[in-house]
Every structure is written in structure tokens, then in C-alpha cells.
Amino acid sequence: MNEQFGPGDRGRAWWILAMNTFAFTVCFAAWMMNGVLITFLVDNGIHDWDPAEMGWLIGIPVLTGAIFRLPLGLATDKWGGRIVYGLLLLLAAIPMFLVSYCNTYWHFFVAGLGFGFAGTSFAIGIAYTSVWFPSRLQGTALGIFGAGNAGAALTAVGAPRVLNWLTNNGEQLDQWRQLPKIYAVMLAVTGVIFLLTTKTRIPAGSAQKTLSQRLIPLKSIRVWRFGLYYFFVFGGFVALAQWLVPYYVNVYSTTVVLAGTLTAVFSFPSGVIRAAGGWMSDKFGARAVMYWVFGLSVICCALLIVPQMDIHAPGSGLMARFSGTVVSVSDAQIVVESDKTGVKTYTLTPRQGDLVTDDDRHSGLLIWPRSMSWQEPVVEVGDAVGKKELLARGVTQIFFQANIWIFTGLCFIIGSLMGIGKAAVYKHIPDYFPNDVGVVGGIVGVLGGLGGFVCPVIFGYLLRETGLWTTCWMFFFVLVAALLFWMHVVVRRIMKQQAPEFLREIESGPVILKD
What we know:
By secondary structure, this protein is of the alpha+beta class. The protein is built from 20 helices and 7 strands.
């Protein structure tokens, strides 16, 4: 890996980075199209697919983009990013164009497999970018390249508006078919520009390596651990960038256009802040950054687990202190007469109005949960009751709006953390595997891409089985907590091996640092 720019390389390197980032933005925007398109088709009654089927159609392009990242990363190491990237853009445009002719579930399924190749652009761009920059700048350069994730936000915001314009606000629904044609033209034009304005460069000695030599790094458990980190920070991002559109439509009754705009609050910062994540990883270290990413993500997911709710639950009831006969029952009190104790009056807590008004329910402004409790008689006049027998049952009503703006704010935080985490994960690769960035970046990208495919499918089945949209956050909470624990165990093991005395000092008391 070059430790400094060669003669004339500085300007060309930054141009290559700019073209890689632009091409990745276009590819990512195209890769995410199904999240908006499938929601639009179902929301407008053009197709009747259940949540699990929607999850498959949203995730299937991601599957292709995931499993082919490794071979295309290998191809980039061997033949260079210019040829591989340029051809990818041109070839992905063909199945994207064919989406406009789809009429059945399986048509969309197969076409999604085809244009999903656009998702392999990440492995190509990572390998192609890294060979142009010295290691001291690779965190920043790869972070800037990763900002192309913002293509997801462009699709989330722009595609619903384009669909509304193409269909004349739903009056000519069949005009949705023009949207994939627009994406196909974008891919093809970008491919031509890329081939005409970039230059081939491959890692030293890479062209002579055999396939078995290229795959040697995959024996390292470190590669697979990085891949699982990426399963969350990238795969989770891809999944939510598409899943949040139907989430907003169903949970908050928004339009598809508004849902796309709010989803962009999650996806756009995640792409843009990735460059900052690269800088932070260069300055503070990738492991320190990942601690913050996982720790804060666990907290946010825990807060998002609580769904919208309007429930009635058993509350504190009223039991008879003595046996006797009920002589009077009202909403305010129950009177029980006993031969031994005489007349005993029990005061009830009555219901006082409504917990929330209709205006409150639809205002979207409630922040904290509201609750109210009351008691309802379960006995009638003339009933004989025994000691400790229930006279009035308690009822507790809880209403929680899951405020849409707080929800969106937490999504913004998680999206930003994912963006920082994506850069931090890939900062490790050139440091540990400087001559195998394509293959290692490819397999890490495979696992991340598989996360983008698997998660929407899991979300769909969890939703179908439980009826709760917040199950996606439950899934992420468990996943991130496990990753944080695993990373901490590894860090402690490394410290124990390399700095056992320092570790003992940390565990036994405060550490005094001397100049």
C-alpha cells in the first residue's frame, strides 16, 4: 500500500474518489427502489401482497447485491475498478429497465435479483478507492466514498414524488412503469461517464495471485467478526431504509410521500456522516468508535421497542373485609350489611372522563404515556359475599402515542450511528489486510448485504406472527447487545495478551497517567 501520493496521483486520486462516490450514490439509489415501489403498488391496490411477501420483494435485490460482492471484489483486485465498475453500471441497467414490464409477484422477484447487482458496487468501490490513497488517509477516503449511501435517501424522498407526478396523483396508476426506466437511464449514463473518465489501477502483485491465494484471508476469524458488525451497521441500514416507508404508512397513517421524507431523515444522515466516521476512526481508533456506536444503538433500540398502545389492564380492585349481603351498589360506593359487623360502606374510585380526546389521539404531539385507573362493581344488590371476595374490579387504561417526531428523532440517531459504524468497520480492513482489500471488503460486504436481505424478511414474518411493527427494534436490540458483548470480550482478551499489567491496574482502581 502506498504510504504517500506518487507524482500526479493526488489530483487523480481525488477525482477517482469523486467518481466512485457518485457512481455508488446512483447504484445505491437504484438498489433501494423496491422499498418505495413495492409499498406504492400495495398501498394503491395494484397488487395484494402480505407483509412477508413485501419483505421478500424488498429484500431480494439486496440478496443479489450481497452474495456477489465477494466475486466482484476479487475481480476488482485482479482487473481494476474501472472496468468492473463501468460494466456493472451498464449491465445492471438492463434488468432495471425490465422492471417496467413486470406484472406478477415472480416477475418482480426475478427482476429484483437482476438489478440487485447494483448493490455489489460497494465492494468494487472500496477496493478501487483504497489503491489510490495512502493508509493514513484511507479512513477518510473510504468514509467519503461511503457517503454514497445517501442514495437511499434520494430514493426515499424523490421516488414517491416522482411516482405521484408520473401517475398524476394516482389517476393513471399504470404510469408507475416509467420509474424503473428512469433509474435504468441513470445507471447506463453513469456507466458510460465512468468508463470514459477513470483510470485502471490494481494492488501491487495482485494480478499474479491465484484464487486460493486470494481467499487465504477468509481463514481469519477477524474477517467474519467484522462482517457481523457490518451485518448490523450496513445491513440494518439497508433494511430500515426500505422498511421504514411501510412502517410510517401503517403505524402513523402517513402518505407514501411523507413516509419517504421521514425515512430520509434516517437514511440521508447515515450516508453523509460516514465521512465523519472515517475521520473519527483515523483520529480516535475504530474500536473506540464501535463501542459508542453499539452502546448508543442498544439504548435507542430499547426506547423504540415500546409500540403505540391503548390498553385496558386489571388494576387495583376492592375486596370485602367481612362477609355479608350487598344492600346498595352505585358507581361511587358499595354497601354491605352483616349480622356481626353491621353496615359497611366501601368507596369506589370512579372513572372521570376520557383519558385522551380524539384530538389528542391524532395530534401527534403527546410525548409521555398517560394512564388512568378506576373501579367497577362486580356484585349486585342481594348478593351474599364472603370475606376477601371481590366487590369491584380495578381497571387501568394506558395510552402511549409513540410520538412520530420522537420516533423520527431516534431513527435519525440510529441512522447516524450506523453511518459512523460503517466507516469504522471498513477502517480496519486496509490496516489488517492492505493487499487483500477487495476480497476482505467483499466478504464483509457480503455479510452486510445479507443483513439487508435477511432483515426485511425477518421483519415481515415477525410482523405477521405478532402484529407488532416494533418487533424490528426488538430484533436489533438483541443483535446489537450480542455484538457489543462479543467485541468487549475480544478487546479484553487482546489487552490481557498484550498489556496484562495495564489491564490489572484498570480493574483494581484508577489509572494514573504520567507524562
